[in-house]
Each structure stands twice: as C-alpha cells, then as structure tokens.
Design brief:
The chain is an alpha/beta fold. It is about 40% helix and about 15% strand.
C-alpha cells in the first residue's frame, strides 16, 4: 500500500542512475580497460568528468563525435558497437519493483524524470524498456522525462530544474525531487523544490510503501 511520505506533494521527480536503474562505475571502467591503450578509469570516474563527457551529456556533440574522441584512448579498429557496449556496461540492472512503483505513483502524482544522460545511454534505456519492462520507450514510465542531452543543460545547473518547473507548471513547494548526488539535491533546494537524498538505492521503495 502506498503511503504519503511528504505532505502537500503533487509531483515527484526521479533521477535515473542509482535511483531507478542500478549503475556501476567500476563496471564501465573495467570494460574500457579491456579496449584502451591507457588507464581509462580517470576519464570515466564518477567525480571527475572530462569536458567531452559533459558536452555529450548536454547534447553538444553527437554520438559519432563522442566515439571518435574516445578512440584516441582506445586500441586501433575498435568498432562503434564495442564502444557502445563498454559505455553501456554501467547500466547493470532494472529492478522490476521500482518500475511497478512508478506505474502506481502515476495514478496519484505527476511523475517526471530528470537525468544527466546521453544519446547512447538513452538508446540503451529504451531497448531495456522494450525488452525487459514492457514499455515502448523508457520515458513512457513518466508523464515527462527531462534528459540532459535533450535540454542542453545538466544537473546541478539550475537551468535544467527551471526548465522543468516552467514547462510543467510545477509549484516547487509541491514537487519532490529524488537524487543520489548531494550537489544535485542542493541545486534543487536552491529553487525551493522539496528533496530526498537517496543514499541507498535499495531503499527507494521503502520511501513509498507501508
């Protein structure tokens, strides 16, 4: 049975990675080590992204440009498919109970996604939605999904939150934002959005179920 963990909430906004989809930064680092000519872990680390990663997440460079930039670190003749497979290895599981929760929440709240992501990962999310979760695309779990690569902004830039609030006509005091990264939580708080910092991805459902 659903409970109401926050009073006066009408809208719930979810981050994706390590909130809805389990991700593993070590897995992607390990995958790239197998096809790289140098230590790749510092490039794909969680806390230190190189500028072309940020550009890719903002949609400022295409998947083709991103792959070609990566190739300078990789062994010769690495295919697009091999790069994508390594890049997507970060997405390790899609816990069914979380997606059941989303569908139940949609009956009672306006449910949105707000995620730093990119063209390759969105394609992987859509593929998983169709093959594993019974949806045509990942965004179908939400009333609207805001992906950084489609907005031109990425969290914790305030513009991506402001865009969502304005386009969806959301009252920040009636909007709950759930994210695993403190800097993203702090940015939302600066705009008076209600927040929950999810530090344990396995505890999400406990927040909403009795």
């Amino acid at each position: 049975m659903l409970k109401q963990p926050f009073s006066d909430i009408k809208n719930i906004v979810f981050d994706i990675g390590n909130v809805l989809v389990d991700i593993d930064f070590k897995a992607v680092a390990d995958a790239f080590k197998k096809i790289a000519i140098a230590d790749f872990s510092s490039i794909v680390s969680y806390n230190r992204q190189e500028s072309f990663f940020d550009l890719f997440e903002k949609g400022k460079i295409s998947a083709k440009e991103f792959r070609n930039t990566l190739r300078q670190f990789l062994k010769p003749n690495i295919s697009d498919e091999e790069i994508d497979a390594a890049w997507n290895s970060i997405l390790i599981s899609y816990p069914p109970k979380k997606f059941e929760l989303l569908q139940e929440l949609k009956l009672h709240y306006r449910v949105l996604a707000l995620s730093n992501t990119n063209e390759i990962h969105v394609a992987a999310l859509n593929k998983a939605a169709k093959e594993k979760l019974g949806k045509e695309k990942f965004a179908d779990f939400f009333h609207h999904a805001y992906y950084s690569n489609e907005t031109g902004f990425r969290k914790p830039e305030l513009e991506i939150y402001e865009l969502m609030l304005q386009q969806q006509f959301l009252n920040p005091h009636e909007t709950l934002f759930i994210d695993d990264k403190e800097e993203n939580i702090e940015a939302a708080k600066a705009l008076h959005i209600q927040v929950f910092h999810l530090t344990d991805r396995d505890k999400l459902c406990e927040l909403f179920y009795l």
